[in-house]
Design goal:
The complex is a heterodimer. By secondary structure, chain A is an all-beta fold. Chain A contains no helices and 11 strands. The chains are: A mainly beta, B mainly beta.
Chain lengths: 120, 108
Amino acid sequence: QVQLVESGGGVVQPGRSLRLSCAASGFNFKTYAMHWVRQVPGKGLDWVAVIWSDGTTQYYGESVKGRFTISRDNSENTVFLQMESLRAEDTALYFCAREDLSLGEFLDYWGQGTLVSVSS
Amino acid sequence: SYELTQPPSVSVSPGQTATITCSGDALAKQYAHWYQQKPGQAPVLVIYKDNERPSGIPERFSGSSSGTTVTLTISGVQAEDEADYYCQSSDTSFTSYVFGTGTQVTVL
């Protein structure tokens, strides 16, 4: 069955960096685009970034552009989110999710998320 | 960037019909998709491409589209349908994705 397992979250000081990982299994990872979506506890969903299946193209939400970088390792079935210059407002639960670009712009499976807390 | 607007909350009695709207200019040209999120859980896709239902999603969930508004309808609401619901779409260049503001459905 499809599984997406995020890791790497934790408490980090403002201005510091953190790298999140999402390990995928149960499907042909290299044929899917992968996303990061975040959610402040008690608030709505906020799209963060997408990377295409071959890793050649990435797009970002306005609030993270220039600070976050999405990447993937198709040999390890893993997608990453490198977060730099973290701010208090980046505190959220970070989900990874997959998308089949050939079917449409929707996310059909999600992980359970990893929590990032930016605090001094 | 653009926005998708949903009502903050909808209340419905068991067995009745819940209707959730999502409005945004991009919806005139782009598909919308819907997610259900229960407390402490990840979102689950319940409708894609305006009105398609993924396998495993009950038939009481349906979607429709008209102009710049899409609608999620839950017919014969059950207690287990109590959750937050989010619409989602992309911009016309497919370089940005956006979620609606979210609607909390309460089953009375």
